[in-house]
């Protein structure tokens, strides 16, 4: 069953740290097949606090999504994102085929 990592950016707090994350994160995706379904397109917040940006990435399974997130290269990049922006990130399972 497919799974999705959803990244919801609430706000950027340090543009330099966030830029370092943006520069490092793509290399972490190598070896983790995924399909980006939405990538910082226009967002219309319907409920809750305003959303500054959002990304939705599809993986073949929850395990594949978790492996991509836990990859040491992504974890190294993540340190910059945590200093550079406030996000909510979660994995959600897709529907059975």
UniProtKB/TrEMBL annotation:
Domain DUF1330: 2-95
InterPro entries linked: Dimeric_a/b-barrel (IPR011008), DUF1330 (IPR010753)
Listed name of the protein: DUF1330 domain-containing protein
Species whose genome carries this gene: Xanthomonas hydrangeae
